[in-house]
Amino acid sequence: MKFWQNLSWIETDQQIECARFAEEVGFDGVMHGDHFCFPDVIRSRYPMSPDGAAPMPTDWAYPDLWVTMAAQAAVTSRLRFAAAIYTMATRHPIVTAKATGTLALLSGNRAIVGVAPGWMKEEFDAAGIPFERRGARLDEAIRATRKLWGGGAIEHHGEFYDFGPVRLEPMPGYALPIYIGGSGEVAWKRAARLGDGWIGGGDAPEDVPELLATLKRLRAEAGRADQPFETILPLTRPASVDELKRLHAAGMDATVAYPFMLTIGPRSTIDEKKRAMDAFARDYIRAFA
């Protein structure tokens, strides 16, 4: 079982030290949220809450996640980094490939590109990109970005993107892992067809076995059952060590320590965050060591 710390929304000047300490106490990786921008007025329905209201205020911190990961990679050696979740469809594939390809080279391929179509129409409006058919746009962006990571003269001629031949040098020469997020059947099928893994949005422990079985079935139907696939599942309530061991046996590869915003509060010192990470490591990570 692997364990991740969600570092979304923390004070930006604490990001580097939090990553360094997370590696020290045994976390496998750290996660970062993303938005292209955060409009002041949001009418879109947030899919993860019962009333559709987004839980995050518009002034919560979203530093550029690729820049943040590069800074954290410079002070760590094995810690991995995951976008949870990058709204890839609001960016051009060339922009995504250049930033993430550079990060892969600087970090020793320790970054995971977690993507989903996005839920906030106002964010797409600000980017000048139609909100409609964002899922199909994302699928094409994934394919185009993977081509660009290969390096050399690349061209792509599709429904949403048309470019090339162009070069982005240097590129890693391999595809970074792309994990799919979201909710429901459409997202699960996208993960089965295109993903190297799944990043959940929050599941009850008792619901995890059925989700894992669904992903396994869909991957088999897509002819990809034999390919590597990692599942990182935040849980909606704390689970015991015994529960986690059962879920790991059922196929859950990793889970996530809650964001400090939800456990300590909107503002906390670096020492408070370190104590929280150390307590989680004591209660969970060391129990699996």
Automatic annotation (TrEMBL):
InterPro entries: F420-G6PD/mer (IPR050564), Lucif-like_OxRdtase_Rv2161c (IPR019921), Luciferase-like_dom (IPR011251), Luciferase-like_sf (IPR036661). Keywords: Oxidoreductase. GO terms for molecular function: oxidoreductase activity, acting on paired donors, with incorporation or reduction of molecular oxygen. The keyword Cell membrane does not apply. SUPFAM superfamilies: Bacterial luciferase-like. It comes from the Bacteria. This is LLM class F420-dependent oxidoreductase. Residues 13-234 form the Luciferase-like domain. It comes from Edaphosphingomonas fennica.
